[in-house]
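re: ur question from earlier - yeah i can do the single chain one, its not a big deal. heres the input i used so u can compare w yours
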Amino acid sequence: MSPAETTQVLLRPRPYAQYSGTLLLLPLLPHRKPLKPLPSEIWTEIISFALACGVTGEMDSSWSWSVVMVCKSFHEIALPVLYSTIQLSKISSLQKVYNRLRSADQKWDSIRRIPYSTPGRWVQTLDISELAFTGQAEAVLLDSLLTDLFPLTPFLSSLHINPSFVLSRRALQSLTQREGVVHIRTLSGLSYVPPPTSNPDEDPFVQLLRKCPNLEELVIIGQGLDPAELEFNFTGLDLSSILTFDPLVLPKLRVLSLLSMHSSPLMHALLNSPLPGLQKLTTTPYDDIPYPASLVSEFISTHGRTLASLLLFTPKSWPTRLHPSPVDLLTSAPNLRHLSLENPLPALVLTEKHNLKILSIPRPKAEFWRVLERLLPLLPDLAALRARDVRWLRKGVTTMAQEAGVQGEMKEWRRRLGRRGIRLLDAEWRGSENE
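and the output i got, formated as tokens:
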């Protein structure tokens, strides 16, 4: 019977009459249609959005875990979402996470249809970039925890580490040899120490990249250049291992950052490998060191044609040693849309029109204005110039303060650029309040 037939009500006003009539009781309102249950995929999106907009931080957040306690259905949906992104700022929290994953993995048996244990297989992002370096003992403990943790997370796709920690060879090999290494898409904050050999195939970072064909973002911080290295003669460097090197296959690599690194087996491997999808490159300039002692200028020339964004940056350290940049950056990267320069500002050379839209410099200088004024006719699409180390003074500051020092130079540059339809932006990408 249909639901409409089961809800019919009949009235008999004369039940004992020979010909008793029957009246059908009609409802005053139409029947309410039952609500269709939402698919689990939609509930997953809802809970993911709620957790992303809620309390962020440690994994044991009371608010996040309260969602799991609502009901059994929420527990089944929210628990994988909670474990998918792990952000930690304490070594003790990482220890708890490892103990939980290890305990669950030991209880996992081969009878189950899924070969990987939970919650380890739910982890997709591990972010410990906020973990502060407090000593060598903590660094050794972190290295041991990550070495044992990587095999428990077969679907890990994003790894973010504080560059103050240096991963050992055993930790890198644990990440390289684990199941599911092909799922890695982001590696950020890895600190690079050059290996004793110059052969790229023996570099643990090169071995890792060879197993990551789906890698999209790579951020590596080197150890900088020791001034004593400049005293050596680099003409006799052994490059024979590069001739037999099998290029890396990284077709999806879009973002690459190699900071404080002038030369290394890793740079040799990337230099001699095709990077067809590379769009953004961040590097530290070393143009005063000739090739092959420094590979930065050659790297930009080789992979510059696909770049849409090129950022030259020297990490702050003491003492900070600034090296010059190539003058042919715009020629080496004809499709560039954003160029960020580093001190000392180069006298850029350009012979034909370029489609550059944004140019960033540390701060306005009178010496660079002459270079920029010469380039402006060849940069018809330039829309903004950004001073990345300067901020506009807040509203209400006296006129004399706005005319002094860097602020006075910024105001003069804004007036000159404004006549050409170019905006002057500060470090926060804000224009002047007087515009």
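The longest helix spans residues 91-107. not sure if urs matches, ping me
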